[in-house]
Design brief:
Elements (H helix, E strand, L loop, with lengths): L1 H28 L15 H4 L14 H16 L51 H10 L2 H41 L3 E4 L1 E4 L10 E9 L4 E8 L4 E5 L2 E7 L18 E5 L4 E2 L5 E4 L9 H15 L3 H36 E3 L3 E4 L8 E6 L2 E6 L6 E9 L11 E7 L4 E7 L2 H9 L6 H4 L2 H12 L5 H8 L6 H15 L5 E2 L2
Parallel strand pairs: 1-8, 2-9
Antiparallel strand pairs: 1-5, 3-4, 3-6, 6-7, 10-11, 11-17, 12-13, 13-14, 14-16, 15-16
Helix pairs in contact: 1-5, 6-7, 8-10
Length: about 500
């Protein structure tokens, strides 16, 4: 009996120590927490009314009885009741031989946990009914309920703190990614069009880049792209692109550098900027390329556009050779043109003229005083046009079968008359049997050439024969064709002699 009393006193002391610790937690954490006990039925309040805290020392003695009462209630709660249908009993339907409890010698029918399962005298749990849960809630002191709620709140705060920490960590991770990208070089592609350029054999295109990166640092540098516009790497930022100089193709081609500029924003790796930055490099006439253009292209080729300085020198020499060859060809052509012009230039004692370029090499001339005849090839008997200077006021009469095709006033008292056969009319007539021997008079090749020379190849022989003039003869239409053409290519060159 003494041992039992001592155990009960120890239990009371432990309970008081726990109560003091919980009361301390209540003062710290629940000052601002309010709880609503309005759900407690008024008719049950006498059963759950708490004892006043200011009881004297004499009131403490019934603590043992109260403890015994609570133990009795606890045992009663663990036993199945007969006054409610909501009560649930575990293992109610098991047969006796399968029960987890058995009688122990000397202890009657007290429940015991099967030693094959339990590690100690742990009673089997039972699920309280709704009525039992309500009764327990009513018997629970407000302080105990507050402490339980405080525990729930503390758990929620801990869980919320963990969630916030996870979200904050995610945000910091994303910020770190953004910061890392801001300091990562991004590859971008621009658009370039340079006919015949292959950067694997020629030099790359130098692109001048200026602007400001994401760190706020100013950027001014030259980067190089291939014929597809690839090769630029930059930190994120805002930049201006322009072409610094021409690349040099393997054959020495130098390109015209466009003056356009493009404003771009670099955001991510692999960005396609062709819609915002596209440059067209045209190929000029090789003879017009200057030494300055070649030197600039060679400079950038040596600084990074070519695989090596030696390769840049080879490309530079190719550009010089190509330019010089083109310039020499142009010079030769100009010299030939001058010789041809001199050969085409004809003069009499009163006027001068130039044989049309279209006729040059196909006609020859003879002259006598102020009369100049232009005839077909070496056949002096097939004149195309004859020019005669006549004093103003005098009458001019062309030869038989010829028609006046144009006139020019020299301004020195003379007028030049141009006359000759109307071949767009004559040729179809002879070919269609209007002469005794049309083929021998005008062989087909000769007939076609005469029509071409007198109409400037504006119409084919078939068109002249079948559509414009016809075999029945339309002299006025044929004459107009020839006079219009001579008025364009020959008569403007006729001028008074110096």
């Amino acid at each position: 009996m003494k041992d039992e009393t001592t155990g009960q006193e120890d239990a009371v002391q432990d309970a008081e120590a726990c109560a003091e610790a919980l009361e301390s937690l209540d003062r710290i954490s629940l000052d601002d927490v309010a709880f609503d006990d309005s759900s407690v039925d008024v008719q049950d309040e006498p059963e759950i009314e708490a004892q006043p805290d200011d009881q004297d020392t004499g009131d403490v003695e019934p603590a043992e009885d109260e403890a015994d009462h609570e133990d009795t209630e606890s045992e009663a709660d663990d036993q199945p009741g007969s006054d409610t249908s909501e009560e649930t009993i575990l293992l109610d339907n098991l047969p006796a031989e399968d029960s987890l409890t058995r009688e122990l010698p000397g202890l009657g029918s007290a429940p015991a946990v099967d030693e094959t399962i339990a590690m100690g005298d742990i009673p089997l749990p039972s699920v309280p009914s709704a009525r039992e849960a309500e009764v327990r809630h009513r018997k629970m002191s407000p302080k105990r309920r507050n402490l339980m709620v405080a525990g729930v709140v503390a758990v929620a705060l801990v869980a919320g703190g963990a969630g916030y920490a996870a979200w904050n960590g995610y945000r910091q991770e994303q910020a770190a990614v953004v910061a890392a990208n801001a300091h990562t070089m991004m590859s971008v592609q621009i658009g370039v069009h340079a006919a015949g350029l292959d950067c694997s054999t020629g030099s790359k295109i130098p692109v001048q880049v200026s602007g400001q990166d994401s760190d706020g640092s100013s950027v001014s540098e030259t980067l190089y792209v291939d014929e597809h516009g690839r090769g630029i790497k930059l930190l994120p930022g805002d930049y201006t692109f322009s072409i610094a100089a021409s690349p040099i193709a393997a054959d020495g081609t130098i390109y015209t550098v466009p003056t356009t500029k493009a404003q771009v924003t670099v955001k991510n790796d692999g960005q396609d900027l062709r819609a915002q930055a596209t440059f067209k490099l045209k190929v000029p006439s090789a003879d017009t390329v200057t030494d300055d253009q070649i030197d600039a292209a060679a400079k950038y080729a040596e600084e990074g556009g070519a695989s090596s300085a030696a390769a840049a020198k080879i490309l530079q020499q190719a550009a010089i050779t190509r330019r010089d060859a083109a310039a020499n060809a142009v010079s030769a052509s100009e010299a030939q043109s001058a010789r041809d012009a001199d050969a085409r230039h004809k003069a009499t004692d009163l006027y001068q003229l130039d044989i049309p370029v279209e006729w040059y090499g196909k006609v020859a001339t003879w002259q006598n005083g102020s009369t100049l005849c232009i005839y077909l090839g070496d056949d002096a008997n097939t004149p195309i046009v004859t020019l005669v200077a006549v004093r103003d006021g005098e009458t001019f009469t062309p030869d038989a079968g010829d028609t006046v095709l144009g006139t020019v006033s020299l301004g020195n008292g003379y007028t030049v008359y141009a006359s000759g056969p109307v071949y767009p009319y004559v040729i179809p007539q002879t070919i269609n049997g209007r002469t005794q021997n049309p083929v021998s008079t005008y062989p087909m090749d000769t007939a076609i050439e005469l029509v071409e020379l007198t109409t400037g190849n504006r119409y084919t022989y078939s068109q002249i024969k079948n559509d414009l003039v016809g075999k029945d003869g339309k002299a006025d239409a044929a004459t107009k064709l020839e006079t219009d053409y001579l008025a364009q290519i020959l008569m403007p060159s006729v001028k008074a002699q110096d």
